[in-house]
Task: structure prediction
Amino acid sequence: MKFGPIPIDTAEGAVLAHATTAGERRLRKAHRLSADDVSLLKAAGFSEVVAAVLASDDLSEDAAAEKIAESMIHRNVEAKPAATGRVNLHAQAAGIFTVDAAMVDAINAVDPTITIATLAQHAPVEKGQMVATVKIIPFAVGSALVDAVARICASGEIFAVNAYQPVRVGVIQTVLPGIKTSVLDKTLRVTEARLARSGGRLTAERRTPHEIGAVAEAAASLARDNDIVVIFGASAMSDFGDVVPAAIEKAGGIVIRAGMPVDPGNLLVLGTLAGKRVIGAPGCARSPKENGFDWVLDRLIAGLDVTARDIAGMGVGGLLMEIPTRPQPREPLPAPKSLSAELKVDIVLLAAGRSSRMGGPNKLLALFDGKPLVRRSAQRALGSKASDTIVVTGHQRERVRAALSGLDVTFADNPDFAEGLSSSLKAGIARVAGNAAGAMIVLGDMPGIASADLDRLIDAFRKSEGRSVVRASHEGKRGNPVLLPRSLFAAIAHLEGDTGARHLVEAEGLDVVDVEIGEAASIDVDTPEALEGAGGVLQD
Result:
């Protein structure tokens, strides 16, 4: 492949390096020039363009990415169509992600023009979540390099989503004088919610004295009818001969590991009893916040083995964020001096999409109670505690702006909207006020979101002193909108393709606060059926 300025007379078939405007027409980056395009550019006064000229043995970026993706062996993973040299791969089921790191490293060592990135080993994923991406860096790459990568991919499974199984779980809670029934009841509710998110089911609970014999008897009983037994001790394990590990052994089981290098979660116990797994839960597992208990429980529910060696290897990355539920965080961070108790939050309303699944009409212009959906969404944003509402436009920009006529919003135009969600995020974040502590990303196609819902997210963000990511949720499942702290803004500038901020939230390790707002958090209108079901009427 040759890259650089080329005379316009020889540009037919070349691939544009940059978006170019000729008269009233805009030719996007990576567009392959036709004879008509060349004529249009010449008429607009172009004598040369910066472009890539493919050699006879080159594959275009999309063809190369597709060939590599097709050569991969994986489970419960679906490859999406190639676009801008990228193929994104998404989970077909909720579960735990596993990856052959050596194979990924080998692929990335073939040549810098070919890259693959994945989620971390054992990352929990939801159905539909992106788990990996193949990206070709230039506009084309030699077929020999693609063949070399394909041979590596053919050597075995590169990654998989290990789907959660509908396991049965029995719970034991030990009791000491002074422990409140309300604490035990809350622990049960938290555990049920934790299991529900991954397909498990709590079948029975036993409350016993904090004594070896009583716990051993209850564990043996529950192990007969359940796949996993979880023991919450009224007192934390302080020795390998303490009540929980000793009870597992007294019942005839084996303690695989007592203690883990994950904080919070250090005091976990893992054992087996009658062929079933037994987990002595650390005290932090009474909270819904992520801790080492989640790491072990989720893997077991996904059908993965967890050994003593596996737990010993959890130290790198095992220092989790201090959680607000701890009574005395070890090293509280000072609140930013520039931020007051009333932290400024701007809303970024995404309204640039093409509504591709609607078959033509723009869903944002569909009428809800006689009002365009995008106007309804903007009015609810304006009715919240947010300081400013920024509307990102792109597809049918003028029609969307006309639907918002008279509203006190700020517009951010995204000419690259066809490149995916990341381009709209970048355009919106670029317009957020310099003194804003965070930006709430609101999707324009969620008709159930009310001003009060937005206010609840803003209140939670202010309570965290602007340090946390705040997400809307429904029945324990994450949804939208999402409020991002300013600390993530710089990373958003590096997003590419149809990628949102979700993986940034995971990678940056910020505390995440989920706010239950009901089913509105999960209802969008991507199809005509969904829109009609939500009460909308499409317009031509």
About this structure: The longest helix spans residues 181-196. The chain is about 30% helix and 30% strand. Residues 322-340 have pLDDT under 50 and may be disordered. The first strand starts at residue 2 and ends at 7.
